[in-house]
Structures are given as C-alpha cells and as structure tokens.
Amino acid sequence: MNQLDALRQWTTVVADTGDFKQLSISKPQDATTNPSLILKAVQKPEYRPLLDETVKKHAGKPLDEVIDRLLVNFGTEILQIIPGRVSTEVDARLSFDTAATIARGERIVALYKAEGIDTEKRLLIKVASTWEGIEAARQLELKGIRTNLTLLFSFAQAVACGAAKVQLISPFVGRIYDWYKKSAGAKWDETASAGANDPGVKSVHEIFNYYKQNGIKTEVMGASFRNVGQIQALAGCDLLTISPELLAELAASNEPLEHALDAKAATKGDAKKVSYDEAGFRFALNEDAMATEKLAEGIRAFAADAVKLEKLMQESGK
What we know:
By secondary structure, this protein is α/β, with parallel strands linked by helices. Helices cover 53% and strands 11% of the residues. The longest helix has 28 residues. The protein starts with a helix and ends with a helix.
C-alpha cells in the first residue's frame, strides 16, 4: 500500500488545484480551488479556451459576474470527475464586507444550481476567515449554503468558525511554517521543526483536538503544504487538501504511514470551550503577529490574482 492509499484510510483526500485534467490520476474525494489556482490554470493552453468561451458567451455582463461564471465552469468540470465536493471562493476583495460576501456566495450557488448541481451536497463556498467573513458564513449556513473558511492561521479564527457552525475550515499549514522559518532566520533548525514539531502542524493539532473535545462538528482540513512530512504528520485529520505534486509524491512512496491524529482519542482531552465577541476576536488575532500578517498577506495575494484574472478576461473580450 502506498502512502496515499494509507492516508485515505483515515483522512478524506482533497486535491488543491484548478487543473481538473490531473484529477483522474490522483482520484481525490473533493477538490478545492482559489483565484491563484484558476489564474494559473487559464494561462495554460489547454484551459485558455474555457476563459475565452466564458467571456464570449457572457459579453456585456458585469466583469465580476463573468469571473464567477468562469469559476463555476471550472467547478462544474471538476464535479464531473470527483465524487464529492468542490470549493469555490468568493472574491477576496470582499473579505471585510459581510453583506457583499453573502450576496456573492448566493450568486455562485445560483450559478451552480443552473448547471444542475446539488449545491448542498457538492459545493462549499470559500470565504476568508476575517470577522466579517465568518459572520457571512454563519448567515450562509443558516440558509443551507455550506462554507469553507479559508486563510485560517490562528486558534482564535478556528474558535470563531466553530461557534458560527461553518461546515469546514482550512488551516494553512505551509504558510504558518513559512512565517516561523522566515522569522527565525539563521536560527531555524529544519530537523527540529519538522513533523509533529512543525509550527503549522502543531496549529492544526491544537484546533483538531479542541473541536473534538468540545463536540464541534466543523470539519478540519489542513491546507497549503510545503512538503509531504507535514501531510504525514497530520494523517487522521478530517480532510487534507493537497497539490497534485505532493499527491504524486505520496503515491510514489511505500514507506509505512502512522496514524497521527485520532478523533476518538482527541475527545478524551479537557480543553475548555472558548468564545469571542467581535472585540475579543480582533484583539486575539492582533496578539498573534503571524496570523495577522499572513491573513493580510493572503487577502492581498488573492485580490491581486483576481485583478490579473480580470485583465485576462478584458483582453480576451477585445
């Protein structure tokens, strides 16, 4: 049994890609996308026609709507290959606007429904884990729209997401690791900070245990991996969303894989339940320099890629 098959015994494997033609190789249950992955995909010759066709078909409509239609086109293609759910992201430029995030999420759902997709079972709306984004997700969940809270770097964000009863959260393991490695500089010890001692892995362990000990149903999906060691150290997490390159690395290894996270064992702890009002959440996030910086950086990067995608669409329409 290779490590990818071993991982599937305990964890739902999710592909993190906009390149849907690769999905038949790794055979994931679910798939996630984001603006950066879609931008990367449409710059490849095999996917550029999908962008051009979307622009041509919806010429004259607002650019933000045409982008949503492109995202849904990718998502619909993905859903023809995978048996589970696809995550489609709301424009990161709306990360601090609850009402606009809800409206955009509802529009994405409507577009999928128009394609005949059972959105309650097969779609997750991705929203940034800001205070406003979490509130938007809370309201979307009450309407039966399932959400995936992304750009999550801190325990405080995870607590607020659990309280909002969102479907799923995506702690960004690799970006947490990046921050601590850069902060340590020459003092960084890669060996001592690997596996269970990796700061991104430790963050997911803390969140996973807290959720299980307090009966919080929100799913935990580790994301943004830099190496297979981080994935191996989280075997047993509810879900892990993994790039095609790292999926291939796992499939190529026949080394034994240990069951690192166990939901039943995690329930035996005694982590006290935490709650935040808006002021408390903002202060807790502010106290976490890593989370504050990486959240802001992530929103800026996704927003920048959304602008690049808009420019490609405008050029295509000329």
